[in-house]
């Protein structure tokens, strides 16, 4: 966090866990590493951070009607100015505050992905899925341990099975064949990511 600001919190555990994973991945990355390639083909770590932050702002904007990201998250710049926390924290705070105002049993909320409306439970999981998978992208690209846990991967995989198909070829690649492995590997393969990805494969 910067300027002594504290992170905003929400009552959605899956979103809290995903935000923690993203913060963990971004923390203490050396300046030189921001240009490293990632599992997101053609994007470096800085681009994935900008994309992930923009997506969180987009979810917040759909819920509150407030302005969304000032740039297209799917066309992120290759670098950013200032500290990474200055990019990430306002976005996570906006998303957390927006979801904190949503009742768990709300039948329908607006979201920035097809079909543009879904239940609050699924919408919060979709927002969490975006943060968590990009946390993994950043971490493995920077040579860090995966920030994804089995406890987080399980509900995210259940949500992904309900919402990913319309996004194949745009936000997610084709599903990879299932193999023996843990819940984190199953989630990554469903999202078109190789659990054993390394920068050497880029």
Structure description:
By secondary structure, this protein is an all-alpha fold. The chain has a domain at 13-148: dinb family like domain (Four Helix Bundle (Hemerythrin (Met), subunit A)). 47% of the residues lie in helices and 2% in strands. It is built from six helices and two strands, in the order αααββααα. The protein has helices at 13-26, 45-64, 84-100, 120-141, 150-163, 183-190; strands spanning 109-110, 117-118. The protein has a two-stranded antiparallel sheet. Strand 1 and strand 2 (117-118) form a beta hairpin. The longest helix is centred in the middle third of the chain and has 22 residues, at 120-141. It is globular and about 45 Å long. The chain starts with 12 loop residues before the first helix and ends in a 12-residue tail after the last helix.
Quick gist of this model?
Residues 15-139 form the Mycothiol-dependent maleylpyruvate isomerase metal-binding domain. InterPro entries: CHP03086, DinB/YfiT-like, Maleyloyr_isom, MDMPI_metal-binding. By secondary structure, the chain is mainly alpha-helical.
**What is the name of the CATH architecture of one domain?**
Up-down Bundle
Order of helices and strands: HHHEEHHH
Average pLDDT for all residues: 93
User: How is the biggest beta sheet arranged?
Assistant: 2 strands, antiparallel
What order do the strands of the largest sheet run in, or round the barrel if closed?
1-2
Low-pLDDT segments, ≥5 res: 1-5
| Structural class designation | mainly alpha
- Examine the coordinates and then state which fold CATH places here, giving the name of the CATH topology of one domain: Four Helix Bundle (Hemerythrin (Met), subunit A)
Q: How far apart, in Å, are the first and last alpha carbons?
A: 31 Å
What percentage of residues falls in helices of 4 or more residues? 40-55%
The total count of strands amounts to 2
Please, how many helices? 6
Mass-distribution shape: globular
Strand content: under 5%
Radius of gyration: 16 Å
The CATH homology group name of one domain: dinb family like domain
Output the CATH class name of one domain: Mainly Alpha
Protein name: TIGR03086 family protein
């Amino acid at each position: 966090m910067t300027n002594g600001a504290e992170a905003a919190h929400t009552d959605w555990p899956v979103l809290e866990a995903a935000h923690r994973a993203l913060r963990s991945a971004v923390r203490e990355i050396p300046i030189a590493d921001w240009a490293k390639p990632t599992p997101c083909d053609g994007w470096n770590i800085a681009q994935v951070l900008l994309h992930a932050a923009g997506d969180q702002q987009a979810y917040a904007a759909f819920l509150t009607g407030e302005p969304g990201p000032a740039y297209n998250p799917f066309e992120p710049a290759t670098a950013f100015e200032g500290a990474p926390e200055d990019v990430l924290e306002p976005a996570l705070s906006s998303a957390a505050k927006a979801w904190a105002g949503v009742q768990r049993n709300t039948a329908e909320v607006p979201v920035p992905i097809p079909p543009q409306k879904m239940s609050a439970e699924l919408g919060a999981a979709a927002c969490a899925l975006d943060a968590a998978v990009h946390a993994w992208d950043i971490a493995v690209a920077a040579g860090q341990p995966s920030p994804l846990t089995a406890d987080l991967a399980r509900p995210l995989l259940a949500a992904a099975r309900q919402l990913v198909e319309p996004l194949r070829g745009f936000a997610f690649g084709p599903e990879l064949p299932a193999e023996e492995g843990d819940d984190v590997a199953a989630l990554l393969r469903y999202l078109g990511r190789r659990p054993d990805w390394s920068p050497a494969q880029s």
